[in-house]
Design goal:
746 residues; alpha/beta; Rossmann fold; 7-stranded mixed sheet; 6-stranded mixed sheet; 16% strand; globular; metal ion binding
């Protein structure tokens, strides 16, 4: 959120309407909920337009004022509760004239449109025609001149809801991450049966003319081959694909997975269908090959934690953008840029999105890929490098190594989902570039005890979807293991660089190694740290591998607990989350699950704050929603423990609500890594490997990681093992806003 609401009356006398249009996507309901609640908090009336543009044209009961409770319980629901429909009427001026009349009648001059580029283009056209539509309504005697003067300008803000992630100008669209969850779940399930029967599977995923879903799925699942429109295969692809699949089999793989985007084409623009791919594999390799078309299952199910957060943040920012707009303000779309929700001119993004289609039609595929943006390009580049396995395998088979360098790869700290995917990426990047990959078991302790093994390409074949740490990981620091022993092993194994994948201990260990270099010349080699911890407490990094998986686990547990609380009525649950002193998990899961409060170390709280929260819940239990959810970070406060908070709530809520407690514990570290963590791990580890290889080839032994660890000392609170500044703290006000704290309890 760009800024907190400076006044509860910023929207006084204003009316906002929200509608969803086009294809539905998971996370739309989170956006609708945020718009309604942010609008009411700002003092505005908020209307829900049912059935998209059709409801706007038909008016009547399709446009209803929303109350706070009307959007309770929809955060975890897929699809869109206010409906979406294709509308031919709105494409005609007469239909837009009816829509304008319905809006003016209710005093609505601020609209938030949630949909794809077509829906947002329609909204912008409506805005441009608004003045002339009102003039026509006055001429027809349907509205007065006073109404025309009062409602002379229409403000439009768009949110992009699309599972395809095909809109230029935002890193992610609402629904894309959830769609990836559905796809990856299916691929993981198919993998088990494919291995049993040694089959090849061709999976077709959605995406229309955008290959994002297929591309990220390929990275997240370790697919053998992908087909996407922005990077079509060259002529003769059939032979190359079959050679690659055959190569994988020769190294012991019992399955092959090929991902086909529904809009896949060859270099001449001809469609590549799943059936054609299957026929090629069957004919040339004589493999038992099956097709699975995932279809609309990709749109279904509960939204991921990421999409809930994205929808909530974008919805809140959209309300601020509408209420701050002037007649000279262009129509905006709220986009995700890194970790910030930003406003971008709507039509600039729409035109850029249309340019992608033109580039594909003109067979300018490089331009199309570049227009997709940095996220898409980064994924594509990593896929190209990691996917080029044939040459690396042949070199290994012939025992040929182009460069006589050994790169050690190890895990340090607590286990986190995605660690294995990072190891796989680092190993294969090193091998592909002609370096030898050796892995260290059990972190620095294993390095000191020479627990080292040479890894080949096939050693990491099944790593990408595995949870935990296959290599083994420990929190032991190098100073505890002995620098003399570590130096001896580095010399013995002729190690030229180290890739350390882990949490706070990984960074702390790197700092210790840096400090010991003058005493131990063997330590004067490049070392790079890849942040990987559920706590997300690594200085210099906005996000760590493993955090997204833990967040989804917490949110899914909260959903189940809320169902239990709804069934028993008047019950509050207190949940303890991991994170050490870092409150990221508690804050973000609280926002994504609709919690009433989240207690964290970074934001001090007193007994009075606890009492205010209890008063809030006592008041809430008198209304429609008779349940409560409180999250507490495990080290939020030394004295106000989880047990204390539970007992206090139970005592003070007596005769109004009862209280239960859940400590989630190490469940947050386990499980299959999410698509985001698999993809992020793959890209981060590959980038780290390329960096370290560059340092070695240029004979540089300085720097310790992409952001030198020496520079991180001042930015780190070592006592509490957290960064001094944390970007997500600016989002915390949203948690309180969405929970509806009144002035009396605030």
């Amino acid at each position: 959120m760009r800024k907190s609401v400076s006044s509860p009356l910023i929207g006084s006398g204003r009316s906002i309407a929200v509608f969803t249009s086009g294809g539905d996507s998971q996370g739309m309901n989170a956006a609708v909920r945020a718009i309604v609640r942010m609008g009411i908090t700002c003092g505005a009336k908020v209307y829900l337009i049912n059935e998209g543009y059709q409801g706007m044209v038909d008016g009547g009961e399709n446009i209803v004022e929303a109350s706070w409770d009307d959007v309770s319980g929809i955060l975890q629901m897929g699809g869109t509760v206010i409906g979406s429909a294709r509308c031919k009427d709105f494409r005609e001026r007469q239909g837009r004239l009816k829509a304008a009349f319905n809006l003016v009648t209710l005093g609505i001059t601020n609209i938030c449109a949630i949909g794809g580029d077509g829906s947002l283009t329609g909204a912008n056209l409506f805005r441009e025609e608004w003045s002339s539509l009102l003039e026509e309504l006055v001429a027809d005697g349907k509205i007065s001149g006073e109404q025309m003067a009062k409602y002379s300008h229409l403000n439009i803000v768009g949110l992009v809801g699309s599972i395809d992630n095909d809109f230029c100008g935002t890193d992610m669209t609402i629904g894309a991450d959830s769609a990836l969850h559905r796809i990856v779940e299916c691929v993981d399930a198919i993998t088990t049966t494919a291995v049993s029967h040694q089959r090849a599977f061709v999976l077709e995923v959605m995406g229309r003319h955008c290959g994002y879903l297929a591309l990220v799925t390929g990275l997240a699942c370790g697919a053998d081959w992908i087909f996407i429109p922005e990077h079509p295969p060259a002529d003769g692809w059939e032979e190359k694909m079959c050679a690659k699949l055959e190569n994988a089999r020769s190294w012991g793989n019992r399955l092959n997975v090929v991902i086909v985007s529904e809009g896949a084409i060859d270099s001449h623009g001809n469609p590549i269908t799943s059936q054609h791919v299957k026929d090629v594999i069957c004919k040339r390799l004589d493999l038992d090959t099956r097709i699975t078309v995932l279809g609309h299952v990709q749109r279904g199910g509960s939204p991921s934690a990421f999409d809930r957060l994205l929808g909530t943040r974008m919805g809140a920012e959209a309300v601020l953008a509408l209420l701050e707009a002037t007649p000279d303000t262009p129509a905006y779309v709220v986009s995700l840029d890194g970790n910030q929700a930003v406003r971008v001119p709507l039509m600039e993004c729409v035109e850029k999105t249309k340019e992608v289609g033109k580039a594909l039609a003109e067979k300018d595929f490089n331009k199309a890929a570049n227009l997709r943006g940095r996220t898409f390009l980064g994924n594509l580049e990593i896929y190209k490098k990691l996917g080029a396995m044939s040459k690396a395998m042949k070199d290994q088979a012939a025992h040929i190594l182009e460069k006589p360098y050994n790169i050690a790869i190890m895990n340090v700290g607590a286990p986190a989902a995605g660690m294995n995917a990072a190891v796989r990426s680092a190993v294969r990047t090193c091998l592909y570039n002609g370096y030898k990959a050796i892995v260290v078991h059990n972190g620095y302790e294993g390095l000191a005890n020479d627990m080292i093994e040479n890894y080949t390409w096939k050693c990491v074949a099944n790593f990408v979807a595995a949870g935990g740490s296959i290599l083994g990981t420990k929190r032991t620091l190098p100073s505890q293991c002995g620098f003399d022993k570590i130096s001896e092993v580095i010399k013995k194994r002729n190690i030229h660089g180290i890739i350390c994948i882990g949490g706070f201990e990984a960074v702390q260990g790197a700092m210790e190694v840096d400090g010991a270099r003058n005493r131990f010349p063997e330590l004067q080699i490049p070392l790079v740290c890849v942040p990987c911890t559920v706590s997300n407490n690594i200085p210099g990094s906005d996000l760590s591998i493993g955090t997204d998986t833990a967040l989804n686990m917490i949110v899914q547990t909260c959903d189940r607990i809320k169902m239990s609380a709804s069934g028993t009525k008047r019950r509050t649950f207190v949940l303890e989350t991991m994170g050490g002193y870092c409150g990221y998990l508690a804050t973000m899961s609280g926002l994504a699950a609709g919690a009433d409060a989240a207690y964290i170390f970074e934001e001090e709280f007193t007994i009075k704050d606890l009492q205010k929260n209890i008063s809030h819940l006592r008041s809430k239990m008198q209304g429609k929603i008779q349940r409560g959810l409180i999250l507490r970070n495990e080290k939020a406060n030394e004295n106000f423990s989880t047990d204390f908070v539970h007992r206090l709530y139970a005592e003070e809520g007596k005769n109004v609500f009862d209280c239960r407690v859940n400590v989630l514990g190490h469940m947050q570290q386990g499980g299959v890594p999410s698509p985001f963590d698999r993809n992020y791990a793959t890209k981060s580890a590959a980038k780290a490997a390329f960096w370290i290889l560059d340092k070695i080839s240029n004979n540089v032994v300085g720097g310790m990681c992409l952001c030198p660890v020496e520079d991180l000392k001042e930015a780190t609170d070592f006592k509490h093992r957290i960064p001094v500044q944390q970007w997500w703290m600016q989002i915390r006000p949203l948690l309180r806003i969405m929970a509806h704290y009144s002035d009396e309890t605030a």
